[in-house]
Amino acid sequence: MNWTKNQQQAIDITDKGILVSAGAGSGKTAVLSERVKKIVGSGKIDPSQILVVTFTKDAALSMKEKIIRAIDEQIEFSDAEQRKLLTEQRSAFEMAKISTIDSFLLELVNSNHSLLGLKDRVKIIEEAQEKNVESRACEEIMEESYEKRPQTMQTLNSAFFDRDDTTVAEKIVAFNRFLETVAFREDFINSTAENFTSEEYNRQIEKIYRESIMESVQKARGIYDLIHYKITHEVNIYPDKAYQLIIEQEDIVSQLEKFLKSDCTLKDIKKKLEQKINWGTLRKSTKKVVVKNNKVVSDVDDLIVEKAEQNTEEIKNLRDKLKKTIEDICAKTNDICINDQKRQQKNRKIFEALAELANALEERSLEMKLRQNLVSFSDCSHMAVKLLVKKENGKIIRTPLAEEIVKEERYKVIIVDEYQDVNDLQDIVIRAVSNTEDLSNIGSNMFAVGDIKQAIYRFRNANPEIFNR
User: Fold this and answer.
1) 270-287 tens-digit pLDDT
2) Positive or negative CA dihedral for 405, 406, 409, 410?
3) 20 - beta bridge partners?
């Protein structure tokens, strides 16, 4: 096969970590297979020290078959000495770890289950069974919390209660599922809680409000433009007062657009909005009148009268929409501009209450699953992270087990297919077993291929942005 320059580099470079980003049909899987074939054919690495992970069983099987087929083809055209080496390597290649990322993590957990305090090996729970466990666990911890955590439940019910506490339960479950994507759960909860009173939090909140207000202003602009068109381009039926008022409203909309694109604060916008709009006068000024030579007349064509009536009703509806939109903008600016400290304290209280019950839910769910020696994919990922890394002084470092894996060069070559489908937990595990000294970087023994546009595992918390780090 004739390789391009970039493809040949991806095959040949082995002294540094490589991330290959390539689209569908670019031959990235063929490059991956050729790279493995070359490594195996060199005879410098025992195939049992090769780790290849992908995301489906079919893909893992297909990859193994492609690599073996490539080695077989090379054997056919080799001399006797090389043929002997390749034949031995091919046989040893059967011991190479080529599997799904989930299978790799599960085997890691089961091989070291005693370090996790598990009495026996575990299996992955079925999705339907996992949802049932989650539902029962949530029901139990909420029932207990009304008695044991009354203040926590009062906080959550005040924030989310809607006819019954079903919405509260949904919020707890959703928040716990989010926390399952976080490697160091308690650190995240504590740092996020502190951020509720930080300047950065205030900036983020204001950013969210500004974006929301801008959406409303853009809506107001669209409504205004329709009113303006009808008054200035349709049948000439409105007196000068209507023209003047619509120009004034245009001034307000334009200034809001200008303010939001500048560095002005939301308090500046609130001050601008305190200027009163005389909606009643606008309504009266856009009621049905017919003008001819600047004088109101009644002796006009029936079609003009009909058009005037139709136009007036449409403008009335648009005027009401514009008024409601401006009021919505006022409400949003008022909300952000008053009681900042009180709001921050309230939001932090809600966050901490959610975190408390989400943690209780996670603990209860895991207890239920482990009674049957079952875990979820997320549980398995967290257990693998716990086995391999820990935090010291805010820095992620390897555990003794991970240090042992790296020192023994258990995985001299690590290859990841469809890297865009890796989530944060899986990425930490892969880096921990690579030879990197700094876990924020990939090891020099790592080769990953993928295409951020083909990410298909977002529902499993895949993070394609890992590719851009």
Assistant:
1) 665 555 444 454 444 444
2) positive
3) 449
